[in-house]
Write a structure and sequence with these properties.
This protein has two domains: 12-146, no CATH class; 157-322, Gcn5-related N-acetyltransferase (GNAT) (Aminopeptidase). It is built from nine helices and eleven strands. The chain has helices at 12-32, 57-60, 97-116, 140-145, 184-199, 210-224, 251-254, 279-293, 310-316; strands spanning 51-53, 67-75, 84-92, 126-133, 149-158, 174-178, 229-234, 237-245, 262-270, 298-304, 320-328. The chain has an eleven-stranded mixed β-sheet, with helices on both faces.
């Protein structure tokens, strides 16, 4: 299904405006959060696709608003995202607060008008997303007014300081070991349970074929990233896991921060009957200690933005929000 965004290519003037806005955006973000890194818009080859959006003159009433958006649409078979995603990349420089809000609102409304033209916009497998530095409060209100919610948070933890040694000490009767391919069936079941749990927040689509897709991906990761998945056993039975991608497997997300090298904590799970017993802390601290020993600068992870479990736990382990993805799913509510 093609839309106006699928084949859009900015003209040279729009491209130049977007590149200049990106440079100003980077300078502003350094004041907002010095750990956030935003890549220049466009592909690795310097190509640029999508629709460049600037504030409508009527919205500004003669005032200046330093904000530009790049609207794109992509399709994916990944488990944790919608099959069709409309994305708006925003670049906003320093501006008077009222002017920025007016300009940002105008760009958002133009984008949502384009999204609404997509025949699949009301499908549950179509979403509209905007990712912002989590501390960039200036742009949040415009999203909330248009019914976007904080779907997920990319959190970061610097490995400059070690955890207390007691954090890596398992409770009595618990053993922590690295996983092997023999553990694949149990790991697969637990990861599928995590996926089902995430769908309960409304931002991750349910997938009946999740097992078929996830099994080869998980097997490949365990073999490729040997030694970076841990299992906690209680009296010989597995009760918890923590899976990490080393830097060479985390390139898809590592450019979100200036720190380098960084790994990515893929997933963590503790048997619900044993939660609040310190087991999750042991697994997370074990992963952080191994990453620190390997010389990594930081760990990244995603967690649900509205989870009453994930938010306080990862905060207690030294992670803090870096980038928040705001979402509407479906992209347009059916009438």
């Amino acid at each position: 299904m093609r839309t106006v965004l699928d084949d859009a290519v900015p003209d040279p003037d729009d491209r130049a405006e977007l590149v200049a806005a990106h440079d100003r955006h980077v300078r502003r973000l350094q004041q907002v959060d010095g750990l956030v890194r935003v890549s220049a818009p466009g592909g690795d080859d310097g190509s640029l696709a999508g629709a460049v959006l600037t504030p409508a003159a009527a919205a500004l009433a003669g005032r200046d608003a330093d904000v530009v958006g790049l609207a794109t649409v992509r399709e994916s078979d990944a488990l944790w995202v919608s099959r069709r995603t409309h994305t708006l990349a925003v670049r906003a420089g320093a501006a008077d607060g009222g002017n920025l809000q007016a300009g940002w609102g105008s760009v958002l409304d133009q984008w949502l008008d384009l999204v609404a033209r997509d025949p699949l916009a009301t499908d549950p497998e179509t979403s509209a997303t905007v990712s912002l530095a989590s501390r960039d409060q200036a742009l949040v209100a415009g999203l909330v007014r248009r019914h976007f919610g904080p779907a997920s948070v990319l959190a970061i933890r610097s490995l400059e300081r070690a955890d207390p040694e007691a954090w890596t000490r398992p409770p009595e009767g618990v053993r922590v070991r690295t996983a092997t391919l023999d553990d694949l069936p149990w790991l697969l079941d637990r990861t599928l349970a995590l996926h089902r749990w995430e769908t309960g927040f409304g931002y991750v689509p349910p997938r009946p074929d999740a097992r078929t897709q996830l099994e080869p991906e998980l097997a490949e990761a365990i073999g490729r990233d040997e030694g970076w998945t841990w299992i906690a056993e209680l009296d010989g039975a597995p009760v918890g896991l923590c899976q990490v991608n080393p830097p060479e497997a985390a390139a898809w997300v590592s450019d979100a921060t200036w720190l380098s090298p960084v790994g990515y904590l893929v997933s963590a799970f503790v048997d619900p009957r044993l939660r609040s017993a310190g087991l999750g802390r042991v697994l997370a601290a074990t992963a952080a200690a191994a990453a620190r020993e390997a010389g990594w600068a930081a760990l990244l992870l995603h967690h649900a933005g509205v989870s009453a479990w994930s938010v306080p736990f990862w905060s207690s382990m030294g992670y803090r929000p870096l980038v928040t993805t705001w979402m509407r799913r479906p992209a347009v509510l059916p009438r």
